[in-house]
Amino acid sequence: MSSQENSNEKSGRRNFLKKSAAIGLGAALGVTNFFQPRRALAQINIPSASMPRRPFGRSGIMVSTLSLGGMFDILNNRLMLAKALEWGINYWDTAEGYGGGRSEEGIGLWFARKPETRKEVFLVTKLSPRRGADFTKRLDESLKRLHTDYLDMLFVHGIRSISELGSDMESWAQAMKKSGKIRLFGFSTHSNMEECLEGAAGLPWIDGIMFTYNYRLMHEPRMKAAVEACHRAGIGLTAMKTQGGGQIRSDSDAEIEMAGRFLKKGFSDYQAKLMAVWNDKRIASICSQMPNLTILAVNGTAAVDQTRLSRADNTLLARYDCETRSDYCAGCDRLCSEALPIEMPIGDVMRSLMYARSYQDLGLARLTFNELPARTRAELARLDFGEAEKSCPRNLPIGRLMREALEILT
Ligand code: SF4
Hints:
The protein is α/β, with parallel strands linked by helices.
């Protein structure tokens, strides 16, 4: 980065922080609930400021280090898009399945009214291989909903193994790039992330990956090596699920200490977990669900102030990870699922549970859970998970959690 860029970034941060005082950091820090009353939000004075940007892999496209995750009703909350752009959040993420297409429609309505902003935005959507192989038709439908004739990035949504992306997919991706419908191609993954990243590093036609990455996983040796391999290969990396399961226990000593320590320093443990990921400069952006202005302010403030985590802060996060290790599912389903007589995406069920318990978003939890095949859901009640539990490096009580998922998500 040139000294001019450095100085611009610093000045942007100072400007952002100064204006953020209008929101009241104290109010922002206490927010963990995504469902803030609209009347209260109307009083928030969102500042205009630029976000730090990083190059998205070898493409060199500069993206905001904070990405607006589109898993909310954008159709009825287009103010969020206006404010995101005003703040310099130019990386917008959505998927064909979010809100049954309403997320894409909401972004499309924005571009229909403000076509001049399309070039400012790094626009990403995702197609799920579990919805069928008719990718060209569905890509065209997404483009229509998004009111654009091209995507900056298309992700194949939620792969569990790099073998899902064979030579047919490579040919299709190259054809779509040639047609101008997509600029870049890649995948997202919540399961067996390390294996998917290792495989992608050897595939020159993969331009970007969105993957589960947080203060818990980023220090694991295999994950570290996989991220480095992708970074060296020039793949643009986007982190998601950066809260590491969110608040999953309230009786951890480290958690109590963490809250006090970070608050004294002027940020929340929520923001600290974002900062930990931003400290890894190989990560171009963090994709975060920000369905209201308060969350946007909290995350934006952390984005411009990402340098304040000390070694002691990181040690405390590591201690918290250690104390709550057996409460967090790391998405390594190959280990537990292969111990079962039938295919069972345990990691996906765990993720649905996390949406319900940690995000307190029962709607999203049920939506994710109901995307699993009916047969899979039916097997949850019948299967003995004893062998899977023996294979779990985190000693999760898988059987009990699967039954809990059935109880609260059906
Ligand atoms: S239950 Fe255990 S083995 Fe299975 S995905 Fe989660 S952490 Fe990995």
